[in-house]
Amino acid sequence: MARWAMILNHFQTMVIFGLAVSLAFAFLSKKSTSERVRYAVWAFLAFLLVAIGIGWLMYPFSR
User: Fold this and answer.
1) Residue 4: per-residue pLDDT
2) d(C-alpha 4, C-alpha 49), whole Å
């Protein structure tokens, strides 16, 4: 029997997490489909930008 393993790097995991959370927030907080789509895209991009920004700020301290 073959075992399937999924190996994800930090960026891929961050994208999946951001997508899942932004979709959940959009469906729980907005009523119309257009509002949900707009909010999901906005929240997803905000998650990515904030995470990349924090990582960029922390990078000098890792050395």
Assistant:
1) 81
2) 32
The DSSP 8-state label assigned to residue 32 in this structure reads S
On the question of pLDDT at 2 being above 70, the answer is no
Of the candidates 49, 47, 45, 25, the one whose C-alpha atom is nearest the C-alpha of residue 36 is 25
In sign, the C-alpha dihedral spanning 47, 31, 24, 4 is negative
Please write the tens of the pLDDT for every residue from 14-63.
Answer: 999 999 999 999 999 999 999 999 999 999 999 999 999 999 999 998 87
CA distances from 31 to 10, 11, 37, 38, 39 (A): 33, 31, 11, 12, 11
- The rounded radius of gyration (Å) of the Cα atoms in the chain is 16
Length of the chain: 63
Q: How far apart are CA 9 and CA 53, in angstroms?
A: 18
